[in-house]
């Protein structure tokens, strides 16, 4: 297992009196999908008032970051054009920022133009499922705004020679893109991309070897919430996967993941608090 060393402690000044501290405890990122077709909550938060109410509820339950997205990335998703994505996300970002001015917001997009406008509207972090490889301008936007950028692993096809070394090599390539564009090293976070271009067995293997990723020294975000491989193990519907998600979260924290992206904030916050107490007692 991989306890968090002190050098992982980082404080981010995100502007407007918004700060974020890593390395003291596991951070909870609450998912806010402003989409009609996301796999577990599509259509619930497309109206601004509903989105703000859900954001407020997640913060009250323990969310440290809110991740707002306007395009579903479920298997077989239909791509959304830039104008439609902006129509979905910008009013939500502005309203959430006004209602919760001290809560960091991440924008879940792989389009540089969407990321730029989201940052202008009040977002603080870029969450890119294509690891800066989906849009050649994304890294430059992250560098220009000096914001943290979450680099997720992804591929167009599952064509690995050796899963974990290949995932690490792909992430190294994305980090190099960030560095070449001028993104500061301490602004780079990594995400193993559970569920993206990976089979059931790939996901389980990668989860069991997360310490090889966290050993690279970058903050690691884990996003397993309600994903298909959990449904396959438990044979349960998507809305009944909190225990399975909690198991993956506890394992991820034990392997050194510092942020977890989830739907069920209240239950996973409790899971993280208990896991942190076991692993990192005495740290402050």
Report what the structure shows.
The protein has 284 residues and is α/β, with parallel strands linked by helices. It has helices at 48-61, 82-99, 112-121, 138-145, 163-181, 200-208, 211-214, 228-234, 242-254, 265-279; strands at 10-13, 19-22, 27-33, 65-69, 105-108, 125-128, 149-152, 188-191, 221-222, 259-262. The protein has an eight-stranded parallel beta sheet. Strands 1-2 form a two-stranded antiparallel sheet. It starts with 9 loop residues before the first strand and ends in a 5-residue tail after the last helix. The protein is globular. The chain contains ten helices and ten strands. The longest helix has 19 residues, at 163-181. It has one domain (14-279): Alpha-Beta Barrel (TIM Barrel).
Number of helical regions: 10
N→C terminal distance = 19 Å
Radius of gyration: 17 Å
* H and E string: EEEHEHEHEHEHEHHEHHEH
| Neighbour order of strands in the largest sheet | 8-7-6-5-4-3-10-9
CATH architecture: Alpha-Beta Barrel
Which topology does CATH recognise? Answer: TIM Barrel
CATH top level label:
Alpha Beta
Query: CATH superfamily name?
Result: Dihydropteroate synthase-like
Percentage of residues in DSSP E strands:
5-15%
Instruction: Give the number of domains.
Output: 1
Note poorly predicted spans: none
Q: Residue share in helices?
A: 40-55%
What's the main sheet like? 8 strands, parallel
Family: Belongs to the DHPS family.
Domain Pterin-binding: 26-274
Catalytic activity: (7,8-dihydropterin-6-yl)methyl diphosphate + 4-aminobenzoate = 7,8-dihydropteroate + diphosphate
Pfam family, one: Pterin_bind
